[in-house]
Specification:
Keywords: Signal. The longest helix is centred in the middle third of the chain and has 29 residues. With 198 residues, this protein is α+β, with helices and mostly antiparallel strands.
């Protein structure tokens, strides 16, 4: 379940943008449309898969708040991490996600369609931008990107697919892992998962 949802979450901004995509009206929506268009262009390029993954990762680094995603995914135990442990975990978690799901996401770019939806919710500096992903077999999912504004950029700190939250899915696993192996043991395990190949 986690692998499937995470792959879909990463595939969503890489999917083929349907010609009936909703017109963006809020700057956060405009940015998400630009993100989808840029990543789609990379995914459809003639570069090798390894080159595409590297280009997408480099582009995503500007828009994904890996620190906040990591903190939310760990939950309450995050306050017990030292600065060094936090840095190591963020790096390991980022590598794990990229290594485990990048191949699935690139496949999703060829097989799925996505459109930006006109609805949007805001609460102060936090915004939810919605898109609809249609898989090759016709199944549709609503993907919500949760963002907050930093200067002129909107940073993604969580993604939900049909209400299933990326950070919540991982929080249960990380809490169990920390209880079993401690913080350092959990980091080692996450690093090991990050080395797995698709």
């Amino acid at each position: 379940m986690t692998r499937y949802l995470s792959a879909l979450m990463l595939a969503a901004p890489m999917a083929i943008v349907a010609p009936y995509a909703a017109a963006a009206t809020h700057p956060a929506q405009t940015q998400m449309q630009q993100n989808m268009d840029t990543v789609l262009k990379i995914a459809k390029s003639s570069a090798s898969e390894a080159q595409k993954v590297k280009q997408i990762e480099s582009y995503a680094n500007r828009y994904l708040d890996y620190e906040r995603i990591s903190a939310l995914a760990v939950g309450a135990p995050w306050r017990n991490f030292t600065a060094k442990q936090k840095s190591e975990f963020i790096s390991a978690f980022k590598d794990m996600i990229i290594n485990m799901y990048s191949h699935s996401a690139l496949i999703g770019a060829a097989d799925a369609k996505v459109k930006l939806l006109p609805k949007m919710t805001s609460n102060g500096n936090r915004h939810d931008v919605f898109s609809e992903v249609q898989t090759k077999n016709g199944t549709k999912y609503e993907v919500a990107y949760q963002l907050y504004q930093v200067g002129s950029v909107y940073k993604i700190y969580n993604i939900r697919v049909d209400g299933a939250s990326l950070v919540t899915i991982y929080r249960n696993q990380f809490n169990e892992l920390i209880q079993q192996k401690g913080i350092d043991g959990a980091i080692v395990t996450v690093k090991a998962k990050g080395l797995k190949k698709q």
